[in-house]
Amino acid sequence: MIALYLLTYFSILVFFLLVISKIFKYATAPIHVRWELYPVAHEPKRSKYGGSYFEEAEYWKKKRQKNHIAELWAMFEEIIFLKGVFLHNKKLWVFSFPFHFGLYLITGVTALIFLSAILDIFSISSLYTIQGGSEIFLFSLINILGYAGLALTFIGTIGLLIHRMTDNKFKFYNTPMEFINLFFILILVISVFLTLIYSNPSFIMSKEFVKNLLTFNFLAIPNTLFIVHIILISLFLLYFPITRMMHLFAKYFLYHNVRWEDEPNVKGGKLEKKVKEALNFGVSWSAPHIQAGKTWAEVATTLPEKEGK
Amino acid sequence: MKEDKMKSIKDFTKIKDQVTHLNPAEYIKLPFPYEDWVDKPIKELTDDQKNRIEHSLDGLSAMELPKPETEEEKEELVAKFLTGLKKLLSKEDNWILLQPLLLSMENCVKCQSCSDECPVYIASGREEIYRPIFRGEILRRIINKYLKPGGKIFNKISGSDIDLNWETIARLAELSYRCTLCRRCAQACPIGVDNGLITREIRKLLSQELGLNVED
Predict the structure, then answer these.
(1) What pLDDT does A306 receive?
(2) Measured between alpha carbons, how far is residue B162 from residues B139, B152, B175 in Å?
(3) DSSP-derived 3-state class of residue A282
(4) ipTM of this complex
(5) Which of A25, A32, A71, A92 to mutate to test the interface with B (most CBs of B within 10 A)?
(6) What number is the average pLDDT over the span A9-31?
(7) Of B96, B128, B209, which is closest to A286 when you measure between CB atoms?
(8) Nearest CA to B100 among A253, A277, A247?
């Protein structure tokens, strides 16, 4: 039985290591030049028509203003309702929305199960011994959100699988991995449903397992179905970071470091310092007009030999 | 949409003659006052031009790429392309757009939300090779198979089953000039992937490593 616990620890550890390393890779990428694409969500005055602070005379002398509420609202619409998919791909949105929303609920329920296990460990409350209002609330929340999340994810996954298999526009781009991702999630959802029916009513066994994990108490699990379910979750945690499902994290950088990144490069600023560093990188491109062997700063300030003559 | 020859992305690298034949009758109808407008058939390249210039994408040539004369020459160009690709993904040689390029290459889920926004794809009568994600998908598969560790072993399961040869590079090069870089695709992408940027980066690789570009 200890092997099951070790597998779970291992998969959680690897999951976090891989996710953190990917985030680190994106976060520490060198400064890049900006290729503008408007509107930018936090632009305070001109977002509606795709304008920007560049319209202001001597903008670099003025204090930058950002509409953080507008940016948060744009993030909320995009993350929760998948606004972009709704606007540009309604047929997909019909399944993509329940799929993603269901997964958010399942993630939330997982966090609540951890919370209830921690409360139990510290004897703050006993979640499943209904004693008071807060326990009933948490107990109900886990169950309502859990079942809703599983149902939505199930419907969304089936829909996405059928959509991918039948719509011609995916024909050239479907790969085994696309289907493995969806089938894996479908099998996971079914396994949770089965454990809820046969051995894990109201997620009680889940909470006990988390408690054991947190207290290093490797108690035997007297149910094969639940063991299979834990193995599947562990394998999924190992699999997730090597797939395109990592767009969950990458999307932050795609919006905040690229699409909405509009910090001006002003003299003496942080950006200028980073650009200066990057200009000292060596160039090794082979085409003669690029001038291999020089730094980017030299390339930018000198002509290639032929042209210079 | 023509699918007579290309049954999978891999066919893009295998088809011996031309990947697709454009037919003005399939282009979208123009709005008022041009409803009755009929495009003249595209002038075919002469036999001499066909012998000298790469045109196996769609029968057209934007770059006037000369055909390599020997197999050795082809292999050398393929090797140069791969060297350039490594530089495109390196901090020193491509800090200028590395972060957005990596993010776009690694996170496209191929949802096709961008397709209906692309004027070239739509106006061509939905020609598959002009789909905004097509170029990026070719490049992604080449990177995954030829540059990533284990790529040649796991390419089938990871969906990177592609053969890199001179014809693939020549077609990808031409394809990078079947895009106006308007970036409507990037604007439509729910994840923030920029296929316009990927196209631009393909042009950069060809120009900065192989010295191949379009004359102004």
Answers:
(1) 64
(2) 10, 10, 17
(3) strand
(4) 0.90
(5) A32
(6) 96
(7) B209
(8) A253
Comparing CB atoms, the residue among B113, B193, B194 nearest residue A89 is B113
- Please compute the mean of the pLDDT values over residues B119-140 and round it to a whole number: 95
Shortest distance, CA A285 to any CA of chain B (angstroms): 5
> Cα B105–B111–B114 angle (5° rounding)?
80
**A111-125, A199-213, A255-269, range with the lowest pLDDT:** A111-125
- A80 and B CB contact within 8 Å: no
Whole-number percent of chain B with pLDDT over 90: 75
Query: pTM for the full model?
Result: 0.92
Residues 162-181 of chain A with CB under 8 A from chain B are: 168-170, 172-178, 180
* Rounded CA separation A119/A250 (Å): 33
For residues A230 and A10, what is the distance between their CA atoms, to the nearest angstrom?
12
Residue A3: CB atoms within 10 Å: 9
For the cut 70, the answer to whether the pLDDT of residue B86 exceeds it is yes
Q: Within a 10 A sphere around the Cβ of B43, how many other Cβ atoms?
A: 8
pLDDT at A245: 94
CB contact (8 A) between residue A35 and residue B100: yes
Residue whose pair of structure tokens reads 């009929």 in the numeric block:
B38
